[in-house]
């Protein structure tokens, strides 16, 4: 393989790979969506309408909490409610980039 072929492969690989900032905002958006979904599930269970039954002792309360958290993470990883994409788009927006510091007067 010549150097031009290697350069073309390197350029294609670097162009296709997301940068660290995009990966961080994507992860943060998915984590936030998972947290929000878990809180909604917990709220529904605690108000008594229970989507998994009743958690009347500490062991079942802990198991339900863990199940809700894992379900919320899996839901978010699979696209969830779409909140992660909206949050990521807002975080990646040029309007959210740090504002330049004004020059000293």
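-> sequence recovered:
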């Amino acid at each position: 393989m010549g150097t031009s072929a290697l350069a073309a492969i390197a350029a294609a690989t670097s162009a296709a790979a997301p940068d660290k900032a995009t990966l961080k905002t994507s992860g943060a958006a998915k984590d936030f969506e998972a947290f929000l979904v878990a809180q909604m599930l917990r709220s529904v269970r605690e108000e008594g309408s229970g989507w998994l039954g009743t958690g009347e002792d500490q062991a079942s309360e802990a198991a339900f909490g863990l199940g809700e958290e894992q379900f919320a993470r899996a839901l978010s990883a699979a696209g969830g409610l779409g909140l992660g994409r909206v949050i990521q788009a807002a975080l990646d927006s040029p309007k959210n980039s740090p504002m330049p510091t004004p020059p000293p007067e």
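Helices lie at 3-16, 20-46, 58-77, 83-92.
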